[in-house]
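Handout, page 2. Input:
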Amino acid sequence: MIIRCGVVLSCLAIAACVVPPAPDTASVPFSAFGTMDNDVGAMNQAAWAFASPARTLNHPVDAARAAAAVDYLGGELSSNPRWVAVSSLTKMQMLQARVDVRRVLGIRPDAPSQLVVDTLMRFAALWQSGNQAASMQVFVSPVFTLPPQRMLQVLGDMPYVQSVNIATMDASGEMDAGGMRMR
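Output:
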């Protein structure tokens, strides 16, 4: 009996070392992505926007919100027990999508997700309200490596990023299959 307990404890200790820590995950306020369910709203925004560059062409608000959604979902799908049924591959794809979106936008890879999401959402809100001067100032930060004007250009003409399109399609399908209808 003592040997069994020792073996079990050893296995548990080894397993604890193998489990990677949860990825950096931002939190967002209620209805941040236009629905009562932020995860579904974020997925809808991201999957729609990253399916075709034409959808966000000359619409930096939509591109910024979609980029924020990818950053948020990269952590959310891997850290929220609600999404335990989403495959490990899809979760890794969403984390890679976060990296790829950050690369396109010139956002430092080690930037805290909360700062990235807050900044992109703040830009979108200010731009949409007509305060372009203030919206450009949100990108004056060491986290954002592109100058504000260049950032606006990229958001207004987001390139197609295949890895992001695939990740959002796969995650959308798995979230839908898990009983959460994408609306």
